[in-house]
Write a structure and sequence with these properties.
Layout lengths: L11 H16 L12 E6 L5 H12 L3 E5 L13 H11 L2 E6 L4 H8 L4 E6 L5 H15 L5 E6 L6 H10 L5 E6 L8 H10 L3 E4 L11 E4 L10 H7 L7 H4 L7 E3 L20 H19 L4
Parallel strand pairs: 1-2, 1-3, 3-4, 5-6, 5-8, 6-7, 8-9
Helix pairs in contact: 1-5, 1-10, 2-10, 3-4, 5-6, 5-10
This protein binds phosphoric acid mono(formamide)ester (CP).
Amino acid sequence: MRHLMNPLDMTTEELDRLFDLANDMEQNMPKYAHLCEGKKLATCFYEPSTRTRLSFESAMLNLGGSVIGFSDAGSSSASKGESVSDTIRVISCFADICAMRHPKEGAPMVAASKSTIPVINAGDGGHQHPTQTLTDLLTIRSLKGRLGNFTVGLCGDLKFGRTVHSLIEALVRYEGINFIFISPPELKVPDYITEHLNELQIPYKEVIKLEDCMPDLDLLYMTRVQRERFFNEEDYVRLKDFYILNKQKLSTAKEDMLILHPLPRVNEISVEVDDDPRAAYFKQVQYGVYVRMALIATLLELV
Ligand code: CP
C-alpha cells in the first residue's frame, strides 16, 4: 500500500506514467467511468478548500466511485478532541482511500502511519501540497511538452507557500531548471530550500522586483500572501498587495511564457490578465481533476 505525502514519493518515471494516464483520462473519459465502482474516497479537510477537495471529489465521481467526508474540523469529532491517529483508524473502516488536509505540518504523515488505506496529503500547514505540484507539473508538461529547461520565476509568499516548496522540490529533478525567487525580504524562500539548491548546484537568484526578471522567465508562478499563516494582521496588510501582475508588467514577458497560480487569487493577478493567452491558471484547475483521477486509480492499484 502506498501513500502520497511528498511529490518525491514518486520517481520521475512513475510521474511520467501518472501524467500519461492523466492525459489518457482527459482524452478518453468514458473508458474510465466505471474504474472505481464500489470504491469510496474520504475527504478529511481540517482546513478550508475549494479546488483540492472538490477536484478530489470530482475525480472520484468521474471514475464511478463515491465520496464521503467532512470539509471543516468543527463538524468532525476533532472538535471533541479526537486525534488524527484515531480518526484515520475510523475512516479506514469506511473508505478505500483518504485525502487529508490539515493546518499542522506532518499531520497527514501521522495519519498514514496508522492507516490501513492509502492516505494522500492534500496540504499540511506551510509544508507541502503534493497534489497541487502534480497538477502544476501536468499543466506544464501538457502545455509546454516538457518538464526541463525552464527559467522559473516564483513570486509572492515564498515563505509560507506550501505549493512553492513542493514545486521547487519536484522541479530540481529535471534538467536545465533555474529559479528566480521574487519576494519581499520578509517572505523569502526558507533557508532549508536554498541550502538544498546549493548542495545540488541548481542555479537560483533572489530578487524583489518582478519587473527586473520578467523578460527572462519561461514560467511565472504567482502566489497569494497567506493571511492564515501570519502571526499579526499588520504585517499581512503591509505585504498583501506587494505584487499585482497586470498587462503593463507583462509587456516585457516572453510571448510564450506561462502564467501559473495554484489559486485562490486575491489581488496578485489583475483580472485583466485572465484573457491573456499566457494565463494558464484556470486550465491548471482542470488538469488538477485529471491528475487526481490518475492518482486515485494508481494508489488503488486499479491500473
Ligand atoms: N490550490 C488549492 O489548494 O486551492 P484550495 O485551497 O481551494 O484547495
